[in-house]
Structures are given as C-alpha cells and as structure tokens.
Amino acid sequence: xxxxxxxxxxxxxxxxxxxxxxxxxxxxxxxxxxxxxxxxxxxxxxxxxxxxxxxxxxxxxxxxxxxxxxxxxxxxxxxxxxxxxxxxxxxxxxxxxxxxxxxxxxxxxxxxxxxxxxxxxxxxxxxxxxxxxxxxxxxxxxxxxxxxxxxxxxxxxxxxxxxxxxxxxxxxxxxxxxxxxxxxxxxxxxxxxxxxxxxxxxxxxxxxxxxxxxxxxxxxxxxxxxxxxxxxxxxxxxxxxxxxxxxxxxxxxxxxxxxxxxxxxxxxxxxxxxxxxxxxxxxxxxxxxxxxxxxxxxxxxxxxxxxxxxxxxxxxxxxxxxxxxxxxxxxxxxxxxxxxxxxxxxxxxxxxxxxxxxxxxxxxxxxxxxxxxxxxxx
Length: 378
Fold this sequence. Notes:
The chain is built from eleven helices and 15 strands. By secondary structure, it is of the alpha+beta class.
C-alpha cells in the first residue's frame, strides 16, 4: 500500500525511505511515472507476476480463473534454473492467491501460516521482520542455484503498524503519521537485506525491484485507504531498481517515461538475459536501463481502473490523466504539469481529447476481454 507521493524521491515532503533513497543515488534507477492497474492487491499480483493487465471487472484471475494459461515470472525463470519463493507476511490464501501461485511454478509459497516462530502483530498478519528472515533462510538453502524472491510486506497496510525503531512523523493526520512510520520500517528492512546480500557475496549478481501493489489515500479527494479511486494517491506507485550494475555513469538515474506494473516482469527477465514470453503484455525497459544503442524512452500510456464502489476507468497519457465513471458517464481530465494534485478538471476545455481518451479506455476493456478469453480466463 505504498504510494509514490509519500516518498521524497517522488517529491514527497517527508523522508520515509532514507535507505532506499541512498541506494537509488548510489546504484539505482528511479521510474518516476509508474502506475498500478488497480487499487487492489490480488490484481496487482497478476500484473506483477504475470505481466498482464488484470481483469477489468469485479472478478479476479487468481480466484475465478484457475485455467488461466499465461506463464508467471517464476515459471519463466524456473525454466532457466531459478528456484523461487513467494513470501508474504499476510495471508496468500486471501482470494485464492496461494493456490494460484502453487499451480504456476512457485517452489515455496510462504505466508503467516508457515512463517516459523512468528507472532501476529494484527489481524492481517505477522511482523515483516519474519518475512525478511524467511527470505534470507531461503537464499541459504541452496547457494548453487540462482533465486527469485517475491516479498510482499504487510505492515504498511491499514491500520499501519509502526515499531519503536521508526521515527514519528510530524503530520496532522494520526493515521498518515503511522503509515509513514510503517514505510520507514520497510525501508530499514530493505537496507538489511542489501547488507546481507553484500555479506554473502551475492549483491553484484542480484537485482532488487522495490514497488507498491497500489497507493493509499488520506482524504485528498474525500476518500481514505485505497480501493475507491484512480487518483494518483491510489494508483501512482514507486518503482526503484537497485543493483551495482546500475552504478555506471551512463545508466539513467531517473526514467520519466510513463510505465505500468505489467512492465516489471518483462524488464526483470530481460535483465537476466531471458526473453519475455510473447503472451506478456508489458514493455521491456531493459534497453533503456542498459544504454543499448538506439534505446529511447518510449511514448507510452498507463491504464488503470477501480471497481471499489463503481467501475472507474482511467489512462495516463503524457501530461494528461483521464478518468471515466462508467455508471454516470462523468469524466475528469487533469493536466498533471499544471495540476499535479488533480484538483481542477479541465475536461470541459478539451472535449476532443476526452473523446479520444474515452475511446482508448473502452478499447482496452474490449481488448482485455478478448485476450483473457484467448488465455482461458472467461
């Protein structure tokens, strides 16, 4: 539940992740404009692990489409000798995600029910410390084979668990202050993971991708938590890649092009020297990251949607961000260069652009229905 705007790297007023900011400056790449496709964890899992847009309705591929036949990231990597563990300090069983993963090539599916010697910190799960401990244990089990870890923290989820080691942030919203402290705790654990990889001599051959499944709202548009909107606080997420290979001076430190969650999987497998499967829908950014000749930042769009209260469809297209409320037909258009907080819709001033964007989001809905039917998700 970590939105980009809560981090100083993305213009946030508070330094909630100082270690990640330092690592990004030393050996990282920051994607400035990455969007989650839905403010929903199960939909984020499909986007990140399968490289495909999640369903544009109330159904979930993990729960409702066991016949879905697109290969997941662990399957693709497994064919090249990687062992995989998907770790969560919450419950993978929520929305059938555990079975979805086990049926698709994940060697170890680890969560609150299987984390050893862990006490629940709240109803959603156990301390994220247990998650990182289990990840290091998995690495130690077989030092001869490469590994793929997918680590899903829980303490930044509502009601936001902040331990005593994290600072208290001076903001006028108690929940937001606790949330920032919880993010700081995640940052501390990421730094420890990097230190342990360095101590084991593994850091030079490891790429760490830090991102969010969705953002979190604290009243910016009259809503809280995350499920009910597609404003930037709901769907604009961080993506920071960390690796010594990015310390080279010719590596871009920031990428401003618009990107999406579905881009993560193809980019990571390509950086590992593996061709992304043709069925994946995301863009491979590895040429931009490695500075290969002819690589340019593509002119791309990001699509997102919410089914929290009603169906909302949206697209980020360059400087503009468009929202369409399906039930009412109401639409919003924001010029993010002039209005980054999305406070003043300019839809009335750009009727033709709104028509084009409305056609684009409608086209995505139909395209994705056809795509999913083709791949067994009906």
